[in-house]
Amino acid sequence: MQVSREELERRHQALSHDRCFACGTVGDTGLGLEFHSDDSGEVSSTWQPHARWRSYPDQLHGGVVASLLDAAMVHALFSLGHQAVTARLEIRYHHPVQLDAPVVVRGRRLKFHHGLHHMEATLVQDDILRARAEASFLEPRVKPPSLPRDP
């Protein structure tokens, strides 16, 4: 059975990301994020913080906040058909993220310039902007998966 290049790339993307700490589907030690996209390529996920991810009492660890924001931007790229890695990440923490209420994390592409995807993500809880990130992502220069040869 011959498989199209698009199907091979889709499988490669899924397999290369199934153990991701933020959104992986293998195991139960990660964050378990599930993203949904709109027609513009913006993605969002609603997620409930857990006490195992805390730093100070009743507050989500800043590193987890960074992971949430980074994952939103990666999934915005996925929704646009790109797979890329973080080249630069800048975060502004506005308010602590509490453990007792869900958060909504959103990601979108701002522009593509000189080979870099410039992205933005926000994390909102109780209608308050808790954190915002801007980042640049670079698509790795790897050979695409080999296609099966015709006999």
Briefly say what this structure is.
The protein is an alpha+beta fold. The chain has helices at 5-17, 62-79; strands spanning 36-37, 43-47, 85-93, 103-113, 116-125, 128-138.
Summary keywords:
151 residues; alpha+beta; Thiol Ester Dehydrase, Chain A; six-stranded antiparallel beta sheet; 2 helices; 6 strands; 32% strand; globular
Describe this structure in words.
The protein is α+β, with helices and mostly antiparallel strands. It has a single domain (5-138), classed as Thiol Ester Dehydrase, Chain A. It contains 2 helices and 6 strands. The chain has helices at residues 5-17, 62-79; strands at 36-37, 43-47, 85-93, 103-113, 116-125, 128-138. It starts with a helix and ends in a 13-residue tail after the last strand. The model has no long low-confidence stretch (mean pLDDT 84).
